[in-house]
Amino acid sequence: MKFSVGAFTLFVASTGAFSPAAGPNTRTALNTATLEAPAAEKTAAPQQTRFDRLKKNYKGFQKPVEEGDVESLSFGYDDFEAAVAETSYSFERNSIVKGQCIQYEPKGVIVDIGAKASAFLPEAEAALIQPVGSIVDDLVPLNEELDFQIISEEDENGQLMVSIRRIQYRSAWETILQMQADDAILEAEVVSVNRGGAICLVEGLRAFLPGSHLAGKMATEDIIGQTLPLKFLEVNQENNKLVVSNRKAVVETQMADLSRGDLVDGVVQALKPYGAFIEVGGMSGLLHISQISYDRIEDLEQVLQPGMAVKCMIIDHDKVNGRIALSTKTLEANPGDMLRDSSKVFENAEESAVNYHAKMEHERKLRESAARDIVLGLGDSLDDLGDDLNGEASPAAASDPLADVSDSLDSLLS
Q: Are strands 283-288 and 162-163 parallel, antiparallel or unpaired?
């Protein structure tokens, strides 16, 4: 029969361990044999000493607090509870928090908002107004306290996404609603044009300006970059809809000072079969073909051309819709001067306007005089009729031909 050497050695060691005659050396051999078993191949973790355990749990020296010391403290439990209540550490979505931008990144900014991890501000959320070609370094400064709105939940790293643009968006709408309530006139820049009109930036928001509400201008690329006075036509925050009017603003600012008979300078904007559109101080006025000259006009293009500077007289206006009617034939010294030499008519326009006003004033006085004569003649007829009916009239009745009528009305009302 064969026996394994390792098993025989273990058997002998075990037998010796339980033998009464086994001494300390025998127990030592047993421990050595046990460590030499296959389990000894793994390295056992070193056990901490009693000193190491005490050192790990040591919190430092703590001075015992006596009852008198607690009473002398100025900051109590009630003060601590109030301080906790006043301090807000809300990092929920849509919350507004304070923070500082601490580092620029290729597509945003790292922001410290006091959370367990730094927040991230995407470049698209850095500002409501972002000029073409601008980078995030131009939109937000570093190490300055700003307001941020949380727009996401924490990711797996505990990081939040924040926005400045949404705060500015809400503030812009509040400003616009207040301006609409005040019926204010605002200034806005034209940023683009389309088939229906133009797009303007109002407090950073895109507003539509219909082409029909442009005063003295056409919706072409020439007006891009221009700043125009505007008034609101429609404000709808729920649908994010803004519609503005340039003509309405011009009416209130300029047409308030215009009146019939005023001499104004203008530029021919467009020619139509029925007349010409003249730009007057940012407004569009109609110079009808019948108001160009006292003579008949066969070809309008031989008299006026687009871009030509002219002088006209205002003969009518519609301040509600911002429309004015113009005339040049009132400036003609002789009928047909506009057809023969229009530049001479414009050169003598001021003198011709004065003469025209004097002529109109003279005609007005003649009409008033004729009307007065008719009224007086009618009064004499009434006096004669009263004498025939009542015989000799009293002096009071002669001075007041309506005295009897007043008495009759008084008697009816009593």
A: unpaired
What is the model's pLDDT at position 258? 78
Q: What tokens appear for 373 in the block?
A: 């004569």
Spatial contact of 264 and 281, defined as CB atoms under 8 Å apart: yes
Amino acid at 329: K
Nearest 5°: the CA angle 72, 78, 80 is 90
H helix intervals, 183-299 = 246-254
Q: Please, what is the end-to-end C-alpha distance for the chain in angstroms?
A: 157
- Going along the chain from its start, the domains and CATH numbers come out as 96-165 (2.40.50.140), 183-251 (2.40.50.140), 259-356 (2.40.50.140)
| Digit-coded pLDDT (tens) for 378-411 | 766 656 555 555 555 444 444 444 444 344 434 4
Q: Work out the angle at residue 140's Cα, subtended by the Cα atoms of residues 136 and 143, and round it to the nearest 5 degrees.
A: 125
Residue 287 and residue 80: Cα distance in Å, rounded? 80
Which tens digits make up the pLDDT trace of 112-141? 988 778 899 999 999 888 888 888 888 899
Report the distance separating Cα 413 and Cα 265, nearest Å: 59
Residue type, 296: R
- In which residue are the tokens 């034939």 written? 329
CB 235 within 8 A of CB 180: yes
- So what's the pLDDT on residue 40? 44
Which tokens is 28 given? 């030592």
User: How far is Cα 324 from Cα 311, in angstroms, rounded to an integer?
Assistant: 14
Q: Is the dihedral of CA 147, 152, 153, 159 positive or negative?
A: negative
Torsion of CA 253, 254, 260, 262, to 10 degrees: 150
